[in-house]
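User: What would this chain look like folded?
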Amino acid sequence: MHHRGAGNSSQPLLPYEALDYLPDLICVIGPDGFYEYFNKPWRQYASGNADQFVSTNWTECIYEADRCDVRREVADAMASATSFSIDLRLTNIEGGERWFLLRAHPQLDERGQIRFWLYILTDIHERKLYKFNLAQKSKIQTDMLNVSLDCIKVITADGKLQHMNKAGCIALNVQENSGFGMDWLNLLPEEVHEDGRKALRYAGEGRPARFPGISRLSGEGVRYWDNMLTPLKNGSGEVDTILCVSRDVTTQKENQRRIELLLRELDHRSKNMLTVVQALIRRTVPDPRADFVKALDQRLCSISRSQDLLIEGQWVGITVRDLVWSQTAIAGGAQEKHMLFNGDPNLRLRPGAAEMIGLAMHELATNAIKYGALSNDCGTVTITWEVEERSDGRFFHLHWKESGGPEVTTTQRRGFGTAVIGRNPFARHGAKVTHAFKASGVSWEFEVPVAAILSDIDIELE
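Assistant: Here's the prediction, encoded as structure tokens.
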């Protein structure tokens, strides 16, 4: 587009001076492509002096990288007589450039012929920079998410997938440029839908949730995931979106299986060893039917039962309830009729403590069946356990108390069973064992600092 001198123009198409009072940069261009008028803001921006503005081709002021695109748009618009808009950078007299939005509109006469073009440049520099910065931050955030090996998803409160990082797209076989918007749960295998719906409901109510998941891709084995859902709330406390971080725990799962196999093998070999020991005892002693052989068999079985529980608990501990129940099972029907168990069913003992207490429980039960509260139909054994808060710390307390049985007296003979009941392997930790033959029945109490006997899991929970 070229400048046409004032003498070449016919009568004015517009009261051009009025355009000088508008903040936008405005140019009037004739149908032949020559400009009729640049308003004062345009002249001021291009030359620094509105009265000295000279331009033979205004497109030369367009930033070079944008120039070809603008010229193409202008040519297409001229040929089709249609409006267009485009973002461009316009240089100024100082060599700098700013972003503008160019809007071009043709004015037609009654015959549909172009009378003139009106070009309007609106300064969008700050807005453009803000968008660039926002896009850059968004790219950085996206890159950070894509670096993560975890599958990270943003989900609406009603379960629609808003965004997912690269790892998530690969795991769920979703195109990164899909736009998302689909139901998240429908991307997961059907067998985890119920747990997923429950977790989604909890998160929608503002509560963190967690559930195990799986994924299957063609040509690959099953992968296992730990899905953690965190609700993201707005200023009103309502859940806007839900952040779901899914961590691949396939390796941990496989390791867990190997550990379970090893523990089962260990259990099997240990039982075989105990069986061999029992057989050796029977073949070694003169009378394999002697009472002490039977007692030894029962003690070996007691050790085996404790070991079974440890295997089931993967050697991280045994609940007190499971331990005392298994070790008093020798009471048969009397266990339910004449024994009371009071205490936290989830409190867990360390493996070493479980073996010691297990043997003591076995010996106490054996004696109660032979001589104490379980030797008649009137007696009762009450076993209680608890964690006590005291001025000198927190203590685990276990109490075996018999009542209603025959009168018991202290025996002069101290056999293995008595030694097991009275021994205190935790004395160095401040533990106390009290074994008393009271008129009401046998009483056995064991107390020890919590840190010495309870599983680490229970110590953390406390």
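The longest strand covers residues 97-108. If you want, I can go into more detail on any region.
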